[in-house]
Task: inverse folding
């Protein structure tokens, strides 16, 4: 715990501002916008012919798109889309993956072998490819995006949880619990999961960055949310057609996306360092 | 030798699993796949004909056995859109994707090695922090954003390269940079990390003690041993490269497998989607198995350990 009391000046130094406070502010804003967007007086789908391709300026702060819709309002609506997708996908894939990985590693034997094979098969589909195929076949819509990304996402958590459990289950405290007659459920929930939390949280924090990019990627390909609903990915796709005359159509959602992804990655780095330090001290 | 066989066997199991999943993809189509593919206006007779030719009227297991039999003869079915054999279409599109992937790989290696070596040698300096900041930026910028920005600056404003399409070497530059950036970012971190590890070893101290200059130590002794983990990462990252090619090809209208996937999805030409996913995944598995084996071959420690 003494790591937190290191020189106070460095906590608000340039490195801390860039690496911790700014990203934190971006993430909090992202979450706030996502949670409140439905109650704000926003009209992201409002078409205004007189505003078509309007550049950023006094009339509309961030300009308008090819249908005259306010880019600022659409970017806020896009924040909501990406946040909801990220939240659901992390929740579903982390819970499912951790459950599968933990029990597979703990029970061992034939079940474990089967789970390892299944994990290997899912890992054989590179990156977002399986999600692209799934989203393409299931059809557009936010639910299908969540399904497609969760089907791909659980594997990472399962692999991590399994590896951790394999190394943890021979620890003395687990052996002692078994000797005292604790059942597998009690051992998993009381003696294994609490120790698994730190690496899983780090994995989830980087996972969020991946999901935000993946959701925008699917929407960019036209496989994400249905128009006119806003997603940063579909906004970039629409903007790519008007690069010459209205580059702000790509840049506005692009900057929003990058800010969120960069912030999540920076905080993930911090979190990993912090949690590693604690592990080493144990 | 036993190691070789066990690697090949597990690759075979994985490929079989991939075949099962890809086969099942078409059964995930909401509702009746035939109706979705042909549209609502199709004649009942046409529907039945397609259902029969795809074998969808058969029980699932016999469908799968037929599917496996066809794949074994490199028969991937017929495109619903162009009515041509899918294997022909894939062969047509493959060179463009390979060209793009190799060019992106080249970009990644050319950027990552100097960046990673510089960061490792000047550890904790401004150079190191700068290189790692660039790398963080590189992983955080998705290729569907990188692509349009590069097009805006280098094609629209400066006019150095074409906006899209595949026509000569100039048209390859922007797609290759777009696709190679994320890999360059990950690779440079890896080069830095492995090089730092190697630089702490005894034989490096020996090399320095006998009076070798810093350049010779890095290039002749350290980098050579730091290379192995980097090669494995290259193999693993090739998958991300192939998947990223789908989006990059869509951005630049690059006529490869990736663009084919998207076109096929839009036209509901699901047999083509299945074939593309199968091709990319099997390629990925094979490349990984090969890098795995090459790794064991090049590093005697692993070769001995694995066989014993």
Result:
């Amino acid at each position: 715990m003494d790591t937190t009391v290191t020189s106070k000046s460095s906590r608000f130094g340039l490195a801390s501002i860039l690496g911790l406070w700014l990203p934190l502010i971006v993430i909090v804003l992202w979450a706030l916008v996502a949670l409140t967007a439905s109650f704000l007086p926003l009209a992201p789908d409002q078409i205004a012919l007189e505003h078509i391709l309007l550049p950023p300026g006094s009339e509309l702060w961030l300009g308008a798109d090819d249908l005259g819709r306010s880019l600022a309002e659409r970017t806020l609506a896009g924040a909501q889309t990406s946040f909801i997708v990220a939240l659901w996908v992390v929740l579903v894939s982390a819970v499912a993956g951790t459950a599968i990985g933990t029990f597979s590693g703990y029970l061992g034997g034939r079940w474990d072998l089967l789970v390892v094979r299944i994990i290997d098969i899912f890992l054989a589909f590179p990156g977002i490819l399986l999600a692209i195929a799934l989203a393409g076949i299931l059809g557009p819509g936010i639910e299908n995006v969540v399904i497609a990304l969760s089907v791909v996402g659980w594997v990472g958590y399962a692999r991590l949880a399994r590896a951790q459990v394999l190394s943890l289950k021979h620890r003395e405290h687990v052996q002692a619990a078994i000797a005292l007659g604790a059942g597998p459920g009690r051992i998993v929930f009381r003696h294994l999961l609490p120790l698994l939390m730190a690496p899983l949280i780090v994995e989830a924090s980087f996972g969020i960055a991946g999901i935000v990019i993946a959701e925008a990627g699917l929407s960019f390909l036209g496989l994400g949310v249905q128009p006119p609903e806003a997603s940063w990915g579909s906004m970039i796709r629409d903007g790519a057609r008007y690069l010459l005359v209205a580059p702000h159509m790509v840049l506005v959602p692009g900057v929003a996306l990058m800010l969120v992804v960069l912030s999540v990655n920076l905080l993930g780095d911090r979190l990993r360092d912090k949690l590693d330090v604690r592990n080493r001290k144990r | 030798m036993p190691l070789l066989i066990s690697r090949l066997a597990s690759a075979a199991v994985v490929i079989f699993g991939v075949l099962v999943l890809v086969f099942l993809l078409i059964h995930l189509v909401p509702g009746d796949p035939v109706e979705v593919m042909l549209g609502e206006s199709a004649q009942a007779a046409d529907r039945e004909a397609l259902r029969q030719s795809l074998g969808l009227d058969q029980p699932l297991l016999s469908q799968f056995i037929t599917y496996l039999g066809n794949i074994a003869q490199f028969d991937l079915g017929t495109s619903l859109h162009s009515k041509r054999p899918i294997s022909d279409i894939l062969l047509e599109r493959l060179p463009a994707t390979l060209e793009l992937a190799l060019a992106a790989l080249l970009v990644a290696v050319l950027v990552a090695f100097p960046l990673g070596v510089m960061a490792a040698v000047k550890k904790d300096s401004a150079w190191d922090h700068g290189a790692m900041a660039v790398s963080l930026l590189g992983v955080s910028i998705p290729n569907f954003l990188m692509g349009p920005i590069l097009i805006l600056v280098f094609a629209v404003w400066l006019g150095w390269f074409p906006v899209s399409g595949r026509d000569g070497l100039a048209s390859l530059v922007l797609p290759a940079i777009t696709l190679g950036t994320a890999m360059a970012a990950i690779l440079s971190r890896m080069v830095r990390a492995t090089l730092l590890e190697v630089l702490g070893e005894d034989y490096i101290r020996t090399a320095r003690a006998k009076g070798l200059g810093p350049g010779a130590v890095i290039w002749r002794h350290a980098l050579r041993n730091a290379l192995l983990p980097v090669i494995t990462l290259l193999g693993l990252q090739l998958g991300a490269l192939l998947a990223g090619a789908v989006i990059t090809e869509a951005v630049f209208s690059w006529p490869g497998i990736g663009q084919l996937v998207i076109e096929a999805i839009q036209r509901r030409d699901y047999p083509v989607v299945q074939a593309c996913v199968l091709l990319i995944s099997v390629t990925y598995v094979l490349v990984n198995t090969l890098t795995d084996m090459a790794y064991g071959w090049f590093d005697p420690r692993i070769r001995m350990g694995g066989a014993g």
Summary: Confidence is low (pLDDT under 50) at residues 1-9, 277-282 of chain A. The radius of gyration of chain A is 22 Å. Residues 71-107 of chain A form the longest helix (37 residues). The interface with chain B takes residues 117-118, 120-121, 124-130, 132-134, 136-139, 209, 213, 216-217, 220-223, 233, 236-237, 239-240, 243-244, 247, 250-251, 254, 257-258, 261-262, 265-266 of chain A (CB under 8 Å).
